[in-house]
Amino acid sequence: MRALFTTTSPYLPQAHGGMESSANELCIDLKHRGHQVAVLAGLKTGMVGHKSRIKMQINKRLSGCEVSRDSVSGYPVWRAWSAWDALDYVAQKERPELIVVMVGHPVRMALAAKRTQIPILVMLQNVEFHLHGGRFEDLGNVPCIANSRFTADKYRTAFGINPRVIYPYISADRYRTRRTRENVTFINPHPIKGRDIALGIARLCPEIPFTFVESWPLPPEHRKHLLRGLEALSNVTFLPPQNDMRVVYGKCSILLAPSVWEEAYGRVATEAQISGIPVVASSRGGLPEAVGPGGILLDPGQPIADWAAAVRKLWQDGSHYEELSAAALAHAERREMSRAYQMDAWESAMLNAREWAAPSCRAEAAEG
Question: Which of 30, 127, 209, 238 fits a disulfide with 183 by CB distance 3.0 to 4.6 angstroms?
Answer without folding.
Answer: 209
